[in-house]
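Quick check before the chapter quiz. The format below is the same one you will see on the exam, so make sure you can read both the input and the output lines.
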Amino acid sequence: MQNEIDLTNVFQFSPDLHKAYGVLQHVLTSYQIDQKRIYATGLSQGGFGTYQLNITYPRLFAAMIPIAGGRSTQGGNFSEQANMGISCRG
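Here is the expected output.
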């Protein structure tokens, strides 16, 4: 018997990404927040989510810090992040 781990569904993004965006939009309209100083960070799967948020909503964050997370270079428009501060850890 061979040990096998099926990673097919491990790195799929949740529809909750759009819900998180909706919550953030509510906070931005409810409070006086400098929208040029919004930053995103996440650890592990949250690091992947950080990248996905920035690809899905490219003008939302001033910078991002994904920690021990990553993003496939396939299927994303990274040109929007050309002038964004990105610090990768892990």
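If your answer matched, good. Helices lie at 16-30, 45-56.
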